[in-house]
Amino acid sequence: MISNLDENLGIDSKVLEKALTDILEDVDLLAIAHNLEGKIVYINPYFLLLSGYRKEEILGSDLYSSLEPKLQTKSGAVVEVFWSSTSLKNEEGNSVGLFSVGIDVTVRNTIQRLLEQSERTLKDRATQLEDKNKYLEDSRRAMFNLLDDAKALEEELQKEKFNVEKIVGERTHELKEEQARLLASINSVPKGLIIADNEGKILFTNKTVISILNADSRLWTLEGVQRYLGESVDLLKEFKRVHESGAPSKVSNIIFKTKYLEVYMSPILSNSVQNTIGIVVLIDDVTEAKVLERSKDEFFTIASHELRTPLTVIKGNSQLLKDKYVSMVSDVNFEEIVNDIHDSSVRLIEMVNEFLTTSSLEQGKIEFKKDKVNIITVVNNVIDELEITAHAKNLYLKYTSLKSQKMDGLTVVADANRVHEVLVNLVSNAISFTNSGGIKIETLKIPGMLKVEVIDTGKGISEKNQSLLFRKFQQANESLLIRDTKRGTGLGLYISKLLIEGMGGQIGLESSVEGKGSVFYFILPLANGA
């Protein structure tokens, strides 16, 4: 997907591909991918929102195997879309499918049709007026030849002329009102709007741009806007790329003085669809959201650090009470009270550690060791660590691998401690949600990668709650408003996702059926790339 990336600069193409994928998940663009049979293999959230279908109704189907300029939604409504497609190729260069990105141009086309209709109406009116003027002129000449009726005919001519001028004046007034309403709507948009032609000359800006950049728009050129924004974004380079490729572009984390900005560019296409006649630039001030996010992270970090010391003291003292003083107190409730204090302090320390780990991962403060790790060794250590917990619920906990796999070939490039942490989290979750049967760990080689699966026979996860997995502070409960505090903070899977992705891998839910169990997995690169 990324063909022009210079890997010597220190950026992994998979990281960039992940960033592009995240953008497709968030941006207001339609994205869809088909295999060679025309079956849909990927669709982003905005496509689902616009089409009205659920993800399960579309994936694997050929519902949109043919992407037309007019796309029909589930409700029967029609959305006009401009599509841009590219062939998906495997490592051998063979085509394996088609990836398409679309822009909802319904509103733009509607406005364009209205303008075209207005233009046709004016032309028709002008033609009518020209014909009428010619008729009036011919009539005037004829009437001048009629001396007896000259006065009456002159009065009729003046009356007709007055009516024509009145109609033209009314239409001119209507057009001015329509233009005023359009400008008022554009100026009310909370994002800065710039419209430039193909040469980069700015044709229009709204008032929000002036407010964001605090600059005089009368002096602006595209180069001028670049100078205002500084070196945090190459606006001219992005402008050229969008103009040449015809594809939209989004640049985030732009630091402008004391503000954080996001810039989105999109081509303006003519009726032929293939011809770019200009570029629209949206500038969004996201400073408040950035500050709020940073304040929240700083609060959790500071609070976690301040809590850990007193909690450690409580844990140590409660352990001392359990070891030396419980037997000295005759009250039967004393031991239960001490145990509750100790268990609660342990759980709180685990929560604080999760907060600190999450904050460090999000801020990029955790470094990953890239060593050769034998995955079988990690799996066996996890089984030894959690086997007692599983047996306490009469559950089996075992590892299985394909007979064709060589045991000495299951070595990945990763941080052994982080892989252990992720596997412990997945297996612990499986034990917590399984009441009969057990948990099985499997490994499977795929090209250049090793896949580790955790398979349980638990109660499974409902379809509507599967989308909540791997989100921050989110538990897959039946209600979004109810949190089960006995099951932790809801950070376990979120932390696991950050850890696996930090090691260049992937993590997810393979499948889950209510009442039958779930299959979670993570993928890491093989040491030899075999």
From TrEMBL:
Protein name as annotated: histidine kinase
Pfam annotation, one family: PAS_8
Entry GO terms, CC: membrane
All residue ranges annotated as the Histidine kinase domain in the record: 302-528
Molecular function per GO: ATP binding; phosphorelay response regulator activity; phosphorelay sensor kinase activity; protein kinase activator activity
Primary localization: membrane
Domain PAS residues, every copy: 16-70
Keywords assigned: ATP-binding, Coiled coil, Kinase, Membrane, Nucleotide-binding, Phosphoprotein, Transferase, Transmembrane, Transmembrane helix, Two-component regulatory system
Enzyme Commission number(s) of this protein: 2.7.13.3
Domain PAC: 65-117
A biological process from GO: osmosensory signaling via phosphorelay pathway
Subcellular location: Membrane
